[in-house]
Amino acid sequence: MSTRKELAYSVRWNLLLLTVGSALFALGAQGIVARHGFLTGGIYGIALMAWYHTHFLSPAAWYLLCNIPLFALGWLHVGRRFLLYSLYGMLATSLFAGVFQNVDLGVHDQLYAAVASGVICGAGGGIMLRSLGSGGGLDVAAIILHKRFGLGIGRFGFGFNAVLFTASLVSMPVDTVIASLIQVFIAAVTMEYVLALFNQRKVVFVISEHSRRIGHDLVSELGQGATFLQGRGGYSGDDREIVMTVTNNVQLKRMEELVFTVDPEALFIVENTFTVLGGQFARRKVY
C-alpha cells in the first residue's frame, strides 16, 4: 500500500497522468469539437468562441492567453504544488491542441460528434484530475474564488458554463448550442466515472457476537484495518461491538467468506463510498 501511495505522489506519475489526459482532451477538442463548431465548457470554451469569432491565432493560443492572468493570480492564492502541476497540464493541453489542430477524427453526425467528443474530453479531464494538479483554466479560477469568497467550486463551474452557453445563443445556431450542452454533460459524466474508477471503496459493517475474532482475522488474514464501534441492540438492549472496515471490490468476496465462516448468523452490511482519505489510503490533494 505504501508503494502505491508513493507512486501516486511521485513527480513522474503525475506528469504522466497530466500528459496523457491533456493529449486526450486536446484530441477530442480539436479532432471533433472544433470541427463541428461546438463549445466545450470552461476556459477552453472561451478559447473556441474567441477563435470562431476572430479566426485569429488558434484555440490553443487563445487557451494559453486566457490562462496567463489566472495563473498569475493563482500564484498568490493557490498552493505551489497544485499550481505547478496545473501549469504543466495547461501548457501540455495548449501544446497538444496545437499539434492536433488539423486532425479530423471523421465523426460527421452532430449527435455522434457530441457523444464521442464528450467521452474523449471527459476521459482526458478525468485523468488529469487523477493527478495532483489539473488542466488549468476554470479549476484554478474556481479554487481562487473558493479560497477568497467561499464560493463552491462546482457551483462556480455550473454558473460559468451557464453564462457561456447563454451568451453563445446570440451568435451560434441553437442546434449547435444544444449539441455543445450534450457534449459537456457527457464529458462531466465520463469525468466522474474516470475519477471513481480507481477511487471507489466499500465501507463494510459487520454485526456479530464474534466481532473480536472477525476483526482479528481481517487484520491477520486479509491485511485489512478494522475499527470497533460501540452499538446496542434496539430489541434486546444488549451492548455489542460492530466491526467497520474499508475495502475494495477485489477483497470484498474474500471478506464476506471470512465473516460467515466465523459466524454464519452475522449481519454483513456493504455501502459504496467514493473518497477515502488518510491512513493507509490516499492523502488529500492540497489546493
Description:
- The protein has a four-stranded antiparallel β-sheet.
- It has two domains: 2-197, no CATH class; 201-273, Alpha-Beta Plaits.
- The chain is built from eleven helices and four strands.
- Helix content is 64%, strand content 10%.
- It starts with a helix and ends in a 14-residue tail after the last strand.
- With 287 residues, the chain is α+β, with helices and mostly antiparallel strands.
Keywords:
alpha+beta; 4 strands; four-stranded antiparallel sheet; 287 residues; Alpha-Beta Plaits
What value does the Rg take, in angstroms? 24 Å
Low-confidence stretches: none
- The overall pLDDT, averaged over residues, is 85
The topology string of helices and strands comes to: HHHHHHHHHEHEEHE
Largest sheet: 4 strands, antiparallel
For the largest sheet, list the strands in their spatial order. 2-3-1-4
Could you tell me the strand content as a percent range? 5-15%
**Morphology:** elongated
- SS class: alpha+beta
According to DSSP, the number of beta strands is 4
